[in-house]
Design brief:
Helix content of chain A: 10-25%
Oligomer: heterodimer
Radius of gyration of chain A: 19 Å
Mean pLDDT of chain B: 96
Strand content of chain B: 35-45%
Low-confidence stretches of chain B: none
Number of domains of chain B: 2
Largest interface: A-B, 21 and 17 residues
Distance between the termini of chain B: 24 Å
CATH superfamily of chain A: Glutamate synthase, alpha subunit, C-terminal domain
CATH architecture of chain A: 3 Solenoid
Structural class of chain A: mainly beta
Number of helices of chain A: 5
CATH topology of chain A: Pectate Lyase C-like
Strand order of the largest sheet of chain A: 5-1-6-8-9-10-11-12-13-14-17-16-15
Radius of gyration of chain B: 21 Å
Shape of chain B: elongated
Low-confidence stretches of chain A: none
Number of strands of chain A: 17
Shape of chain A: elongated
CATH topology of the largest domain in chain B: Alpha-Beta Plaits
Largest sheet of chain B: 15 strands, mixed
Number of strands of chain B: 17
Distance between the termini of chain A: 49 Å
């Protein structure tokens, strides 16, 4: 049975929802879940005071309401599915290692930060540092797949080591900052200063872009791996124009101020 | 001895004897169906028999663009060897020399999720001389090897399954032309998903026996009992009266059932195409784990 938590009213302060993940709620009854506590600003409050609880703890958790004040939804989860019918706060799915999160609204900053596995799909916008590394950490996302239907904030994929971030809209400035590896696809184009300090990562830009001076033009070709990745993105639900699958891409290598084995692939034209 | 007749075709009361083998399925794609076929054809060359070629391989079927991982036309190839290590060595050799070298190709694992695997891209990547890169896509790792044309994309490993090698039919008729027409009809009917016919055009004219009468060092020699020119020369000929030519078809498949059903299709197609005699090769039932009695193939497919 699906567990549904419906926000009663806007909370008085930011709420930490890290504990509300399927694996921790599995097997608990409605009353047990309502009695759990969560941090709300400086206070600790019962989940039942914040949410109407219906159903029982299962592998499928639904959160309903305007949850922009609720942080850490799905954070640390390793299995199951979380569906958010509304906007989310920060740290959505941060450090998750498995399972699936579907957010029907926008997400705040740090969504998928240091994520290690699983799938996260955000139907709206996402904030800064999508899939990024927390302050002081060298490594951001190490696995999994993040899809965002609209635009995302600055420094998406910062410190990324593995995994895939695909954005239907545009990414903000500093996309792929100090990327180690992995792939960030921005179908609507990458923002300025993308790929600064990139070592082996792949940045994919569906629109014309001017790479940083640390990048040098290499060639025009049809990258076979990118074809697989775009098909995977399409399989996960994000719309990918056929022209991107058929077309030619310019490869720019960089950041030559770093290892220089990264790349920015910029869509040029349909074949 | 004849077990039954299918029209004018006498079917011998015997069985085909086959062996457990290991196999890999490669999915080779390219910019066009012709280039994919060219790569597959080259990769499966000189792969008729494990005795002399270390592996047996052939094209399983052509794949439409919507059946392949990268949405391009492709070809599925099955490669058989006696053990997993044998599959691993031959796959690396053949993909490295025949697929990576072929314009526009990519090579994928056609047995995802198999319990056993053999390295492919994880070994071939060294051709990239340190410039290779990998991508993990939907949980599978692929290697991007820089080449003159751009990049060769290859799966990190291929699944290795348990298959059956050495199913066979021997098809005879009153003259060589009629026997070949029947064998060609049988081969065409037998091809399909899960089976390959590794010999030229699927047909063997030099059917063999284990060992040799004249030498202890020969692993195989001509099947003299089924050589029509020796009919009057040897006391134990198995060539029936009225039969002047025979061809063998060897079948390797991904399962016992796949081989059996291919044999059934081939038997009935040969009978329909004018074969006057169909038999099968075995080793007295002592060597092979799988037996396919022709009596079990009487019902049409």
């Amino acid at each position: 049975m699906t567990l549904t938590l419906t926000l009663r009213a806007p909370p008085p302060a930011r709420v930490r929802a890290d504990a509300l993940i399927p694996e921790r709620l599995h097997g608990l009854g409605t009353a047990d879940i309502a009695a759990l506590t969560a941090r709300c600003g400086r206070d600790t409050v019962a989940v039942g005071d914040l949410f109407d609880v219906s159903g029982g703890g299962d592998e499928h958790l639904v959160l309903v309401g305007d949850l922009r004040q609720v942080d850490g939804i799905g954070a640390f989860m390793s299995r199951g599915r979380v569906l958010v019918e509304g906007h989310c706060g920060d740290h959505l799915g941060a450090r998750m290692s498995g399972g699936q999160i579907d957010a029907h609204g926008d997400a705040g900053a740090w969504a998928g930060a240091e994520m290690a596995g699983g799938v996260m799909r955000i139907a709206g916008h996402a904030g800064a540092r999508l899939g990024g590394a927390y302050p002081g950490a060298r490594v951001g996302m190490t696995g999994g797949e993040i899809l965002v239907w609209r635009d995302v904030g600055e420094e998406a994929g910062a410190g990324m080591r593995r995994g895939l971030v695909a954005v239907g809209g545009q990414t903000g400035s500093g996309t792929g900052l100090r990327m180690l590896a992995g792939t960030v696809i921005a179908l609507g184009g990458i923002g300025p200063e993308a790929g600064l300090g990139n070592r082996r990562g792949s940045l994919v830009c569906g629109r014309a872009a001017e790479p940083l001076p640390g990048y040098a033009f290499a060639t025009r070709f049809r990258p076979p791996a990118l074809g697989l990745q775009l098909r995977r993105v399409r399989e996960l639900g994000l719309s990918v124009d056929d022209a991107l699958l058929r077309g030619t891409w310019a490869r720019w290598s960089g950041d030559r101020n770093e290892l220089g084995r990264g790349e920015i692939l910029i869509f040029e034209e349909e074949a | 001895m004849t077990a039954y007749a299918l029209g004018a075709t006498d079917v011998a009361d015997t069985f085909a004897e086959a062996f457990p083998m290991r196999y890999a399925r490669l999915v080779i794609t390219a910019a066009t169906a012709d280039w994919a076929h060219e790569a597959a054809r080259t990769a499966t060359g000189f792969a008729t028999s494990v005795i002399g070629c270390k592996c047996e391989a052939a094209i399983e079927r052509r794949l439409d663009a919507d059946e392949t991982p990268d949405g391009r036309p492709g070809v599925a190839v099955l490669l058989f060897a006696m053990d997993r290590e044998g599959v691993a060595k031959r796959v690396i050799d053949r993909v490295g020399q025949c697929v990576m070298t072929c314009p526009t190709t990519a090579c994928f694992d056609g047995l995802p999720g198999a319990e056993r695997t053999a390295a492919l891209g994880s070994s071939l990547r060294y051709f990239g001389d340190g410039f290779q890169a990998s991508k993990v896509i939907a949980g599978q790792r692929f290697w991007r090897i820089p080449v003159l044309e751009g990049e060769f994309l290859v799966s990190e490993s291929v699944g290795v399954g348990r298959g059956v090698g050495g199913g066979n039919l021997i098809i005879g008729a009153g003259d060589a032309t009629a026997a070949l027409v029947s064998a060609q009809a049988a081969a065409a009917a037998m091809r399909g998903e899960g089976v390959v016919l590794p010999f030229p055009g699927g047909i063997v004219r030099s059917g063999s026996k284990v060992g040799a009468l004249s030498s202890k060092s020969m692993p195989a020699s001509t099947n003299h009992q089924l050589a029509p020119t020796l009919r009057a020369q040897i006391p134990d000929t198995l060539v029936p009266d009225g039969v002047c030519a025979l061809f063998e078809i060897v079948i390797d498949g991904i399962s016992e059932d796949a081989v059996r059903e291919a044999m059934r299709r081939g038997l009935h197609a040969a009978a329909g195409a004018g074969a006057t005699y169909v038999t099968a090769a075995n080793f007295g039932g002592k060597l092979g784990e799988f037996h396919f009695p022709l009596t079990e193939l009487r019902d049409p497919p």
